[in-house]
Amino acid sequence: QERRDFLVGVLRKAGLKPVNPEGSFFILCDVSDLGFETDLQCAIELITKWKVACIPTSPFYSEGSQTPPKMIRFAFCKSWETLKAAEAALANFSV
Q: Alpha helix locations (H) across 1-95?
């Protein structure tokens, strides 16, 4: 819970919209307002430019189903060193 709360705070400070999970090791963030065409584009930018790994959720939707939301997820079951590195990397996050 401590790691979850820490990462939720980091993501909020970065201007993302995290959903506080109650039974998962992942935090979902709505990225629909960030100007990316897809959640995959957002994830690629976070990984390549900001060096923060995340997972787009659209691949979890089957073809022909509803339009997937622009959501990405972050794992908080990481070491404190990794979480602090994400905090430092996202300190100046902007798109």
A: 2-13, 39-48, 80-90
